[in-house]
Amino acid sequence: MTDSFAVNKANWDERAVLHAASPDYNFADFAADPAYLSAVVRFDRPRLGDIGGLRAVHLQCHIGTDTVSLARLGASVTGLDFSGAALAEARKLAAAAGASIDFREANVYDAVEVLGAGEFDLVYTGIGALCWLPSMARWASVVAGLLRPGGRLFVREGHPMLGTLDENDPAAPRYPYFEHAEPLVFDEPETYVATDRPLTHSVSHSWNHSLGEIITALLDNGLTLTAFTEHDSVPWNAIPGQMTHDEATDEWRLKDTPSRLAASYTLQAVKHG
User: Fold this and answer.
1) In Å, how far are 125, 164, 210 from 174, measured between CA atoms?
2) What does the pLDDT profile of the chain (273 residues) look like in tens digits?
3) How many angstroms separate the CA atoms of 258 and 92, rounded?
4) What is the Cα–Cα distance from 145 to 264, expressed in whole angstroms?
5) Whose CA is closest to 38, among 156, 151, 147, 130?
6) 158 vs 251: CA distance, rounded Å
7) Are strands 76-81 and 55-59 parallel, antiparallel or unpaired?
8) Residues in domain Methyltransferase type (predicted)?
9) What is the distance between the alpha carbons of residues 116 and 82, in angstroms, rounded to a whole number?
10) Phi, psi for residue 51 in degrees, rounded to 5
């Protein structure tokens, strides 16, 4: 059986260097402006509230732009990712930005073993992370294991409704809405930012997960849902040719009647005391 994590690690190891070099990730802005935050964290800052002094872990942190942003909001942050290449870029970014962050290399499913149980006030998962995991039940058990009693989960993620659409023919759903055992396999030489060369490790494995499956997994693992908001925008051009860019928020939404599409969501939950 193909090891989906190995396939995806090769893909993300290669993407990491390309992403760090791309102006879309704004590394130079982090170095130049000590108050600069990633667009994703800026978008959800009102919902994040005051995180000063919290011990936070950013799961699937990639090259660290959201991780550094959380640290700039006053949290003591650990970043975890399975890609050593991504973490190498994240460490460079943190050093240039003057942020002290503990980056760890591990599969997200091994996070409790690597980081310790009940160690965190805040578990943060950013946009475009959950689709790389086959099981929400297993992910939710990791979240519950990492949080102290009363600790909070914060997720900003692409909406599974968006995940059903083919960006080249989005007129009707093509892919599963509900969690599926076998991964969706894509062979795409391009990544989602401007780069100067195609990927050689172009195959990736992904899964969609319904909102009900995500929320039920959290409830089953002792978390209580405290906030849930659906948005008509996402931080990337998810349907090329049919979306328009909002300069104020650095988000993309449908040109024609954006209320037709739930494009992303923000979810918060608290671990029972």
Assistant:
1) 26, 6, 15
2) 469 999 999 999 999 999 999 888 999 999 999 999 999 999 999 999 999 999 999 999 999 999 999 999 999 999 999 999 999 999 999 999 999 999 999 999 999 999 999 999 999 999 999 999 999 999 999 999 999 999 999 999 999 999 999 998 998 999 999 999 999 999 998 888 777 788 899 999 999 999 999 999 999 999 999 999 999 999 999 999 999 999 999 999 999 999 999 999 999 999 987
3) 38
4) 26
5) 156
6) 12
7) parallel
8) 58-153
9) 17
10) -110, 10
Beta bridge mates, 140: none
CA 207 to chain centre: 14
For tokens 């051009």, name the residue.
237
Residues in the chain, overall count = 273
Phi, psi values for residue 211, rounded to 5°: -60, -40
Q: Which two tokens stand for residue 259?
A: 């209320």
In contact, 131 and 207? CB cutoff 8 Å: yes
Q: Is the CB of residue 123 less than 8 Å from the CB of residue 143?
A: yes
CA distance 124 to 59: 6
- Annotate 49-99 with three-state secondary structure: CCCCCCEEEEECCCCCHHHHHHHHCCCEEEEEECCHHHHHHHHHHHHHHCC
